[in-house]
């Protein structure tokens, strides 16, 4: 019995078939409930339903069933904010603080976050607390920051719980209370807040309020770093450099320091400079060491800056 052999497909036919499959895939994707919901939000927003504008803006920020568009998201958050949606004001405030899709403007950010907080956005209260803690766009006021963090944390905003926990560790703006700090940080880390995991890791590394456990600390630093917490990446890099809770690995340490340095973390740049100076995990390059030391100073890490000459007596 003879078996028929299908004719060989030409390159052109192959391309056409691929295009047809791609078109079919897009057509099917357009029927996905997520796409239909995005279209519904768009129609509702256009008719003046500002809550829908806010929800559509979130999708545009995340690229969720729509093309990612930070600029358009900012416009829609502004529309929602004008319509009294507190979360819209808060989201636009965060965008101005970071300079994402809109001009970076800390003063404008603080105004929008305050507006959002006053309208009941606990995210706005938490983010405003961060600005007061850092003195960004508003005078530094750690007591006011703590008040905002407590308000938002009591309402279930886990980022605020992480910040409040960190303040209790240091005794800044609130009484020093490590037991309270541990409870807040554990709660926020369970809620997948990277900052909470990183701060909790530091307590385990120091044996402060919890049993000292370097392996637990390193695991928490990894959780923080995976959640885009730059300090968590630095701490994990330091753990790999020292072999604390993990197998010593200078190459991995250098990777983590470089990642955090790119996010303007000065001490990470300085530690990376030290690895280049020693040739640990990277090739020994004095010029690279000097470059990263200068960056560390530019990013505010004082030990990396040249000593100022003493005034003549």
User: Which whole number gives the mean pLDDT?
Assistant: 90
What composes the largest sheet?
none
CATH-level-2 architecture of the domain at 249-305: Alpha Horseshoe
Percentage of residues in DSSP E strands: under 5%
Radius of gyration, CA atoms, in whole angstroms: 25 Å
Number of beta-strand segments: 0
User: CATH superfamily assignment of the domain at 249-305?
Assistant: Tetratricopeptide repeat domain
Tally of helical segments: 16
What would CATH call the class of the domain at 249-305?
Mainly Alpha
* Order of helix and strand elements from N to C terminus: HHHHHHHHHHHHHHHH
Notes on the protein architecture:
With about 325 residues, the chain is mainly α. It has a domain of about 55 residues: Tetratricopeptide repeat domain (Serine Threonine Protein Phosphatase 5, Tetratricopeptide repeat, Alpha Horseshoe). It is built from 16 helices and no strands. It is globular, with a radius of gyration of 25 Å. The N terminus is likely disordered.
